[in-house]
Design brief:
Distance between the termini: 45 Å
CATH superfamily of the largest domain: FAD/NAD(P)-binding domain
Strand content: 15-25%
Shape: globular
CATH architecture of the largest domain: 3-Layer(bba) Sandwich
CATH class of the largest domain: Alpha Beta
Largest sheet: 7 strands, mixed
Number of strands: 18
CATH topology of the largest domain: FAD/NAD(P)-binding domain
Strand order of the largest sheet: 5-4-13-14-15-12-16
């Protein structure tokens, strides 16, 4: 296993349960022995997919002990007002916010405790020869170059995966990388008074603005970890906002309540590095039975649907299931895994890019709110016969592509209902509503 991040550690646990001997190599130092890398990570929103995977590994309760519930979005409006948008229609439709380092520590400890699992940190993969029956890997370590042989190599080494690059070398492979022309910086927001809605510790906080966006996740200690997104270049961008006066003016204009919540926001802004956001689509995801990719290594997405970690965890349980069905043919298992996951993660990439526009531009729109409220109302009336897209993505394990297809059918039906209501054709609207269940199921 190359990469001791979230998906690498979870997959190590699942493989160890199968009786495999697993060696995990990580180019960075052990995160448990130093402070977390502030400024380079976004808090994670754990949804149904991720929780299902952690439950399968027996780790969900331990992770939830480090998490804070998010029952909906608190929207900080440009005029200083607040809005609230629940995530669902029932009490169990909530997300959980967890610090990346806390989650990684739980997974590292769990994997390290498994028989047959060994971790080696500060070991950077520099070359891989996949042509032999036993894959040869070269790692740069403090003690020099190490040669490691393995029957199978799993690349969980992120969006800029060395395993992927080495696996595709000399092969007819597709690779597409797209950077968002926006970057991000992290902000720390201290816990507010218990009754302060502006720092509600059980909600995701969103500041939509013209040419800017802030998203803040709650932490278990009631503080918030905020992320400010701005263009990388041009007017009012990370490139041009270099002075106290410029930063203070922009934040006061676009996020009017931020100075009161974060008195040192300008100092934090100027001291933090800029992070970048990338989408990766690639194929193939595996080479015979010798190499396979997980998570961001094969499908990095923008963070705006909160599904990057969740989809990576879903990769792990899907691959584990494919190995169950093909215990003696790992090449077939890897091929089945790619066939199941790639169409869905391609859809997720599109949804994640679209949700950036929604968070930035539409949250304060009356039309958007009316459409969202109609979706939730129909869900309350019809139950599982009408499920909003966000609910299917975040609160179920419906494959992403299936969720999008069903959502499009529902949108068509809702447009017909709206048309019937607009023309006063009550009878037609009633007929449509009675037949709604059949239509949204595609009949």
């Amino acid at each position: 296993m190359v990469g001791a991040g979230l998906s690498g550690c979870l997959m190590a646990v699942l493989l160890a349960r199968r009786g495999c001997r697993v060696r995990v190599f990580e180019r960075r130092s052990d995160p448990r022995s130093r402070a977390a890398d502030h400024g380079r990570s976004i808090n994670l929103g754990l949804s149904r997919r991720g929780m299902t995977a952690l439950r399968a590994a027996g780790l969900l309760d331990e992770v939830l002990a480090h998490a804070a519930p998010m029952r909906g979005r608190v929207v900080h409006l440009p005029d200083g007002g607040l809005g609230f948008q629940p995530y669902g229609t029932s009490d169990d439709q909530i997300l959980r916010s967890v610090l990346r380092n806390d989650l990684n520590t739980v997974l590292l400890d769990a994997a390290e405790a498994m028989p047959g699992v060994r971790f080696e940190f500060d070991a950077k993969l520099t070359a891989m020869d996949k042509s032999k029956a036993t894959v040869e890997c070269l790692f740069q370590t403090a003690g020099g170059v190490r040669r490691v042989l393995s029957e199978t190599v799993i690349g969980s080494d992120g969006a800029f995966s060395t395993v992927r690059a080495q696996m595709h070398r000399g092969e007819p492979a597709d690779y597409h990388q797209e950077f968002l022309p926006w970057g991000y910086k992290e902000l720390s927001i201290e816990a507010g008074p218990p009754d302060e809605r502006r720092t509600d510790p059980e909600a995701l906080h969103v500041w939509p603005a013209d040419g800017g966006l802030i998203v803040a996740h709650p932490n278990a200690d009631r503080s918030l970890t905020g992320t400010i997104f701005l263009p990388l270049a041009g007017p009012d961008s990370f490139e041009t906002l270099r002075t106290t006066e410029a930063v203070s003016s922009l934040l006061a204009d676009r996020f009017p309540d931020l100075h009161r919540l974060v008195p040192d926001v300008v100092e934090q802004f100027l001291s933090q590095p800029v992070g970048h956001l990338v989408t990766v689509r690639t194929a193939p995801w595996h080479h015979d039975d010798r190499v396979v990719l997980l998570g961001d290594a094969c499908h990095a997405v923008y963070p705006f649907y909160g599904q990057g970690m969740n989809s990576a965890f879903e990769d792990c349980v899907t691959l584990d299931g494919c190995l169950d069905r093909n215990p003696d043919d790992w090449a077939a298992a890897f091929a089945e895994y790619q066939a199941i996951r790639k169409p869905n993660t391609d859809v997720l990439a599109d949804l994640s890019a679209e949700n950036f526009i929604e968070l930035r531009d539409r949250l304060a729109s009356p039309l958007f709110l009316a459409r969202k409220n109609a979706d939730l109302a129909l869900n309350r009336i019809l139950g599982n016969r009408w499920v909003p897209l966000y609910t299917m993505i975040s609160h179920t394990t419906t494959p992403y592509a299936d969720a999008l297809r069903r959502s499009r059918r529902q949108n068509t039906t809702l447009a017909w209902l709206a048309g019937a209501a607009a023309t006063g054709t009550a009878a037609a609207g009633a007929v449509l509503l009675r037949n709604l269940a059949r239509r949204v199921k595609g009949k």
